[in-house]
Amino acid sequence: MADLPKCPECNSEYTYEDRGLFICPECGHEWSADAAEASDDVKVVRDSNGNVLTDGDSITVIKDLKVKGSSSVVKIGTKVKNIRLVDGDHDIDCKIDGFGPMKLKSEFVKKL
């Protein structure tokens, strides 16, 4: 039995191959072998609504965020231009007016 990749959606190990597609019986996700190889190389960062973020996008903060080491708060609706995607826990690197350089998590922003 060949080593089959885990499901990219639910991480299930019970995937099987059918006519060139990999199928997950737990969540029903289907993907091709080419997509499985390509997904290993590229990390996709998505906002809170599921939109794909890229370098240079503009975003809006969807939740009041406390700034560590300070008593200030980044308010909901704050617009941020020209983001940069980075690896790590906080996957957005940006500069917010009035705060300076910040790192944000993509789950707390939405794409404009």
TrEMBL record:
Which Pfam families has this protein been placed in?
A: YjdM, Zn_Ribbon_YjdM
Extract the InterPro entries matched here.
YjdM, YjdM_C, YjdM_N
Q: Which residues form the Protein YjdM N-terminal domain?
A: 4-32
Domain annotation Protein YjdM C-terminal: ranges: 45-111
- Family, per entry: Belongs to the YjdM family.
Protein name (Swiss-Prot/TrEMBL): Protein YjdM
